[in-house]
Amino acid sequence: MPTSELRVTHFAYDTTDARRDPNCVLPLDPLRDLVSEGRIGALAPTAFGCMGGVYSARRVREQLAPELARHMLAEGIDAALLVPV
Fold first, then answer.
1. Helix, strand, coil proportions of the chain in percent (round to 5)?
2. Mean pLDDT per segment of 10 residues, for the chain of length 85 residues?
3. Is 43 in a helix, a strand, or coil?
4. Quick check: keyword Oxidoreductase in the entry (predicted)?
5. What element of type H or E holds 67?
6. Which pLDDT value is given to residue 6?
């Protein structure tokens, strides 16, 4: 999907910069440049995201992280880029 087609919305987050340039939230264009330069092999078909308001480190450790890892391994993903927003 072209970056120009991405839409950003959030009820409690100022999305001004993200709407102007979605790459500050999901850096697709820089990652695509790395692929075209041959620095990385390819991008995964899926981008995973999660809400920033996660209040339980235990649930992240015991549920969220293992589930994300399971999905990524199933897609054959070798590495993940974590982008704080």
1. 45, 0, 55
2. 85 88 92 96 89 82 94 93 78
3. coil
4. yes
5. helix 65-74
6. 86
With vertex at residue 52, the alpha carbon angle to CA 50 and CA 54, rounded to the nearest 5 degrees, is: 90
DSSP letter, residue 53:
-
Instruction: Please say whether the beta carbons of 67 and 47 come within 8 A.
Output: no
Spatial separation of the C-alpha atoms in residues 28 and 59, rounded to whole Å: 28
Cβ proximity of 23 and 30 under 8 Å: yes
- As given in the structure block, the two tokens for residue 78 are 């070798």
Between CA 55 and CA 59, with CA 56 as vertex, the angle to 5 degrees is 135
Nearest alpha-carbon partner for 41 in 4, 5, 77, 67: 77
The token pair that represents 7 in the structure block? 């839409």
* pTM summary value: 0.78
